[in-house]
Structure to design on (260 residues):
C-alpha cells in the first residue's frame, strides 16, 4: 500500500499524519519519506487511541512531499472491546450528530435490534445516498448529508454511525486502506458493536471489508483524519493512494466481518 501527498506550505506549520497501519497489524516493510523543497524533514512517532500510529513534524514554507509505503503480511487479531467503548461511541460527536437524529432514526427503524438493525441501517444509507465527490464538505456532518442525499465515504460513514448511535448501537469511524476500492483512495467505514464484537459496516459497498487494513479509529473524521496541521493553512496539490492484495476478495453485505 502506498500514499503520496503534495502540499503547498505558505508559513511555518506543524503536521500530524495518520497513514500507517494501526499497531498490531503485521507490517513486514514500511517507509515514510517527508521532504520540503527536496530537503528531508525529520518525523517523530506517536500513538493515538486504538493503536493509531502517528507521525509528527514541523516544516518551513515550501512544497511538502509525503511518501508512505508498507507491506502487510497476514492479519491482525480482532480488536478487543473495551469497557468504555459502549459509553464513548454512543455519544454524539462533531460530525455524528446522533442526538439530532434520534427521533428520525426511531421512526425509520422500528422493531429491530442487533445484527438485523445494523444491516437495515447500512442498507438504508446505501439506498438513500448518491456517491458524489462534489457533494461532500469538510465541515458537513451526518445531518447535512441526510439533507443533501449525497456524499463520499466519510459522509456515508458519518450518517451510518449517527443512525446507529441514535438507536443505542455503539458505532465509530475507521479509516482504512481498501484493496479493490473504486475509485482508489483512503476509505472510511464504520465499526458497530454487535454481539460483543466490533464489526465493519460499509454503506458505500465499494470495497470488500475482509481486505481492508485499519489505519485510525475514533468518534468521527476529527479523530481519523489522514493529515492535521496547525499554525498555518496549507493547500493540498495532489494525492495518490494505492492498495493491492495478492488475492481477490468478495463481500456479502449481510455477513458480519471484523477488520484486521
Amino acid at each position: 500500500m502506498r500514499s503520496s501527498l503534495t502540499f503547498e506550505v505558505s508559513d511555518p506549520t506543524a503536521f500530524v499524519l495518520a497513514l500507517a497501519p494501526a499497531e498490531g497489524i503485521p507490517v513486514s516493510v514500511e517507509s515514510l519519506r517527508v521532504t520540503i523543497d527536496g530537503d528531508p524533514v525529520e518525523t517523530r512517532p506517536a500513538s493515538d487511541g486504538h493503536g493509531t500510529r502517528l507521525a509528527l513534524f514541523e516544516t518551513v514554507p515550501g512544497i511538502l512531499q509525503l511518501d508512505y509505503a508498507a507491506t502487510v503480511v497476514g492479519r491482525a487479531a480482532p480488536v478487543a472491546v473495551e469497557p468504555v467503548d459502549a459509553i464513548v461511541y454512543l455519544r454524539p460527536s462533531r460530525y455524528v450528530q446522533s442526538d439530532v437524529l434520534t427521533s428520525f432514526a426511531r421512526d425509520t427503524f422500528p422493531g429491530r435490534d442487533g445484527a438485523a438493525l445494523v444491516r437495515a441501517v447500512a442498507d438504508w444509507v446505501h439506498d438513500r445516498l448518491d456517491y458524489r465527490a462534489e457533494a461532500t464538505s469538510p465541515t458537513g456532518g451526518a445531518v447535512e448529508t441526510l439533507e443533501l442525499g449525497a456524499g463520499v465515504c466519510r459522509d456515508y460513514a458519518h450518517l451510518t454511525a449517527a443512525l446507529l448511535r441514535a438507536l443505542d448501537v455503539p458505532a465509530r469511524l475507521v479509516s482504512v486502506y481498501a484493496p479493490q476500492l473504486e475509485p482508489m483512495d483512503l476509505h472510511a467505514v464504520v465499526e458497530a458493536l454487535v454481539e460483543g464484537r466490533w464489526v465493519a459496516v460499509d454503506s458505500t459497498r465499494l470495497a470488500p471489508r475482509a481486505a481492508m487494513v485499519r489505519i485510525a479509529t475514533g468518534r468521527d473524521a476529527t479523530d481519523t483524519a489522514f493529515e492535521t496541521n496547525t499554525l498555518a493553512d496549507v493547500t493540498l496539490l495532489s494525492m495518490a493512494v494505492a492498495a493491492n492484495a495478492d488475492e481477490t476478495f468478495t463481500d456479502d453485505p449481510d455477513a458480519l466481518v471484523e477488520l484486521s
In short: The CA atoms of residues 161 and 171 lie 5 Å apart. The helical segments are 85-88, 102-108, 114-128, 142-148, 153-166, 221-224. The chain has two domains: 2-74+230-239, 85-223.
